[in-house]
Description:
The chain is an alpha/beta fold. The protein has 2 domains: about 10-45 and about 305-400, Aspartate Aminotransferase, domain 1, CATH 3.90.1150.10; about 55-305, Aspartate Aminotransferase, domain 2. Helices cover about 35% and strands about 15% of the residues. The strands form 5 sheets. It has a 7-stranded mixed sheet, with helices on both faces. It has a 4-stranded antiparallel sheet with strand order 13-14-17-16. A two-stranded parallel sheet has the order 1-15. α2 (about 50-65) packs antiparallel against α9 (about 290-300), α3 (about 80-90) runs parallel beside α9 (about 290-300) and α10 runs parallel beside α12 (about 390-404). The longest helix is centred in the C-terminal third of the chain and has 27 residues, at about 305-330. The model has no long low-confidence stretch (mean pLDDT about 95).
Amino acid sequence: MADINRNYLKLPGSYLFSNIGKKVNAFAQANPEAKIIRLGIGDVTRPLTPKVIEALHKATDEMAKQETFRGYAPDLGYEFLRKAVATNDFQARGCDIAEDEIFISDGAKCDCGNIQEIFATDNIIAVCDPVYPVYVDSNVMAGRTGEYDSVTERFDKVVYMPCTKENDFVPQIPKEKVDLIYLCFPNNPTGAVITKDRLQEWVDYANKNGSIILYDAAYEAFISEENVPHSIYECEGARNCAIEFRSFSKTAGFTGLRLGYTVIPKDLEAGGEKLHPLWARRHGTKYNGAPYIVQRAGEAIYTPEGRAEVKEQIAYYMENAKIILSGLSDAGYEVYGGVNAPYIWLKAPNDMTSWEFFDLLLTKANVVGTPGSGFGPSGEHYFRLTAFGDREATKEAIERIRQL
Ligand code: PLP
């Protein structure tokens, strides 16, 4: 008799954003006149840039001709894109990463969620708290997390690393031995970054203990300050202990197009085996490659014009971040992030819980954000706003919150 993967039943509640969606829809139905401003889900709102559109058109035309038509893409990505990525995102920054260490995919979420498959099911994972939910949930599905305790809101086999204002939202190295460490900088949801020295401590720790760091740099393009590493491979020894994930989603507005990549250095090993061929095998077996036209669009962001356009798009969002940050801070809110990341992490006033503040903002200001507790227990009493909205709507939302 067929049975299900019972680990799925251990997933705590439904996905955060579907809960938010349900609440917002119910409110919108009951209050059709309300002009709701959504600064909750981290989706972009600006259109694709001209250079990206040009590349999409050109590649589409190629698909229409016998001589230039392309079928299945190479599993690991077209050479033109892997080369552009290795050269521009790594070698130009002094990181020793070659093009055949880049695995092109349709986004960082799939890669972050799937990477755990190549590791043993008894490996202990360490995650930040609060955290992007995909890291824990994908390990729950794989049966790696033990049992869920609804009181502590934690799985008993997972090591949670609190990220609080006391540690500048950068986790301490855990006392217990951990095997797989998920780090995300610039961080979703807190907007925090890690200095190169602090990241080097993590790399040294991982190399000493035989751990692997799974480094999610999906928001790398938003870094504006010096001394903030853009890649974990800026740290010495990272080739021996780290995998890095990147995404075109927020960098260039590709959330609807879908493109990302994972870096696995050829020397990287776990359990005495190289990880590069394992991921290549996994990718080749379960994935048939990102579309040609999308990979051409990705290539376009590395041209001089493409780069300038993408920079301008990021500047637009970061201006929104500035408006949110200064508006809320002037109004007396405790605010974090928003300088090297498109997320603003704020403390709910008057000791309100995250969901109480969510309800207040939705019903009184008609503004939607994300309750911090949805990202983990240490996110309780916090709230995330994103800078991905339209400029006028962002200004309006902040004005409404100030007037509350
Ligand atoms: N990693 C983090 C930390 C994210 O916040 C997101 C998207 O919100 C992703 C990965 C997913 O990116 P992609 O759109 O490339 O799947």
